Amino acid sequence: MIRHLRHSEIDKAQWDALLAQCADRLWYMQSWVLDLCCPNWEALVDLDERAIMPLLFRRKYGVDYLYQPYALQQQGVFAAVPGDATTRSFLDAVPKRFRYWDIHVNAQMSVHASGDLHVSANENQQMRLDADLHSLRAGYSQGHRRNLRKCGERPPEITERITGSEFVALFQRTTAARFSNVPEGGLQLLEHLLTEGRRRGQCSILGVRGDHGPIAAACFMEWEGRSIVLKTANDEEGTACQAMFHILDHYIADHAGSGLLLDFAGSNTASVARFNQGFGAQSTVYLRLKRNRLPLPLRWFKR
Fold first, then answer.
1. FRET pair for 4, CA 20 to 30 Å: which of 60, 178, 214, 241?
2. How far, in Å, CA of 43 to CA of 67, rounded?
3. Any idea what the Cα angle at residue 98 is, between residues 96 and 99, rounded to 5°?
């Protein structure tokens, strides 16, 4: 039976134990991550089916609505045995007070548009690091191999001595400035995720330093056999020395043959997708669900 739990009713240890049993488990869905991203999150839980769904919501104009918090790529239904029937049951069980949805759900969920439920596709890219390094590098594109050779015998030095605050400062003046899609409080949230992730042994940051600080860096969230490239940042100096190519190649080299799934947290942006695919990553699809049951004046505003 599916139960709706308010935040105070959620047993966080039980939630994490259930998540660990889910075939489609993701780092994003750990209780500590959800606590940082959406402090008052609620949940749907079915102990018999060992299935869970977070309800990540905000309130605006007196209306609670489901949304996608910054830095979380996917949410949705997670189950020990994923299936269409479980997905339908959980979506039907979402409390009626959530009259508007705009969420991205995990790749195991198959959902079809119906009535006021609209479905669209997003792309992700990922690769399994189960082969030796020579074989993995053989799967790189010619352009990526060429970029890795450009520095000749003096490639940029990769370091793990990049702090969370240094990464966020670099990210703020590069990636965030280029895409202009960081919500209010997003940078503080990102730094909290990096700090707590490192404390828990789930986060590593690789980068390249210049004379005045980091010029390129990537943060990896590592959990349950998957490493998510949560965010990357690269300034003009980093671009000039192909730093991001070397950072990703260094990470792949360190984990070659491990069987780790490297999840690039891919993008619908063609140039970003090409960069990820150039390392041999394959595209997968996850869905965006939108539902609008707001009263008429607000419904037109949120179309």
1. 60
2. 14
3. 85
Length of the chain: 303
> Which DSSP state fits 297?
H
Question: What span, in angstroms and rounded, lies between the C-alpha atoms of 230 and 96?
Answer: 32
Structure tokens at 303: 């179309």
Q: Which of 157, 277, 298 is nearest to 216 (CA)?
A: 157
pLDDT below 70 — which residues of the chain?
Answer: 296-303
CB 247 within 8 A of CB 279: no
Question: Residue 60 — left, alpha, or beta (φ > 0 → left; ψ -120 to 50 → alpha)?
Answer: beta
* All structural domains of the chain with their residue ranges: 3-122+285-301, 131-258
Q: Are strands 63-66 and 57-60 parallel, antiparallel or unpaired?
A: antiparallel
* The model scores a pTM over 0.85: yes
